[in-house]
């Protein structure tokens, strides 16, 4: 008989003991003498002695020892009993919160199972497509039952939902959060500034140029003699021409 038992399953131990005069037999688990109850019973027929536990729990895990003793001496034998918790359908402790990130920012999500169990796996999905570990995507379990998802650079097309799904042979559950991806913003910044010019009266024109970046594309204006001149842009390159 296998020594590994699920919670609330029956455990049965039988031994044959001989001796004269007839020995007194005692059972113990982890050196604690077993007391009979409605779920723990001992019996014997002739030389066969039995320990029966009708509803095992994890507290019964350990070393089962049977000792026989009479006026001549004593003898004992041991066996190991392992009681594993009964497998139950997974359940998350709480739901993930909806989140907002900007394009190219990192996304970090976490879920935790109420009861971590062997044989339970957690998978992550973005808009119904399973996410796989790889460059830019990290899926980890830093401690039993706690699962992390990290996407280093979020793309605009990832907007929608992030789903964590836990599964084992008994059942499954899922946790869904909305993902809102905003376009990145960046304040205007000049990467090329206008240069000073010296011009003669008979020059045909004077040209100033500048390069400015920003998200969204910034509006650019210049002042000359207290008048605003609005410039047309070619990509991020702006020109000011004085005829």
Automatic annotation (TrEMBL):
<feature type="domain" description="Immunoglobulin">
    <location>
        <begin position="96"/>
        <end position="182"/>
    </location>
</feature>
<dbReference type="Pfam" id="PF07679">
    <property type="entry name" value="I-set"/>
</dbReference>
<protein>
    <submittedName>
        <fullName>Immunoglobulin I-set domain protein</fullName>
    </submittedName>
</protein>
<dbReference type="InterPro" id="IPR003599">
    <property type="entry name" value="Ig_sub"/>
</dbReference>
<keyword id="KW-1133">Transmembrane helix</keyword>
<dbReference type="InterPro" id="IPR036179">
    <property type="entry name" value="Ig-like_dom_sf"/>
</dbReference>
<feature type="domain" description="Immunoglobulin">
    <location>
        <begin position="4"/>
        <end position="84"/>
    </location>
</feature>
<keyword id="KW-0472">Membrane</keyword>
<dbReference type="InterPro" id="IPR013783">
    <property type="entry name" value="Ig-like_fold"/>
</dbReference>
<dbReference type="InterPro" id="IPR013098">
    <property type="entry name" value="Ig_I-set"/>
</dbReference>
<feature type="transmembrane region" description="Helical">
    <location>
        <begin position="220"/>
        <end position="242"/>
    </location>
</feature>
<keyword id="KW-0812">Transmembrane</keyword>
